[in-house]
Amino acid sequence: MSRRRPIDFPVLRGLIKPRQVLEMTGWRPNWSRGLLSRGPCPFHRSTGYTSRSLAVSDRVAYCHKCHASGDAVRIWAHYKGMEDYESAIDLCTILNLPIPFLDK
Prior knowledge:
Shape: elongated
Mean pLDDT: 91
Low-confidence stretches: none
Strand order of the largest sheet: 1-2-3-4-5
Order of helices and strands: HHEEEEEHH
Distance between the termini: 19 Å
CATH architecture: Alpha-Beta Complex
Structural class: alpha+beta
Number of domains: 1
Number of strands: 5
Radius of gyration: 14 Å
Largest sheet: 5 strands, antiparallel
Number of helices: 4
CATH class: Alpha Beta
């Protein structure tokens, strides 16, 4: 069994924002002010233009109804049904970003 190279998640969090990942799922906000946006939650599939259960900031997203939350990597992992490590690799591949592995 091969060992996985550790990823520098704080660096990755600085490269990929929650809103960017949510928009990859087809999410669109219906309210924004500054760095805060609100809209329907893709996790519990809230519907309707007026749904604002999901709050998204520059660092994290949080659903006030189903309580799903996390940074960009965690959001993608939850949406795709994978672990954070695989989510990080997948996002870097899709967004054509270098994977920020920790140096030994």
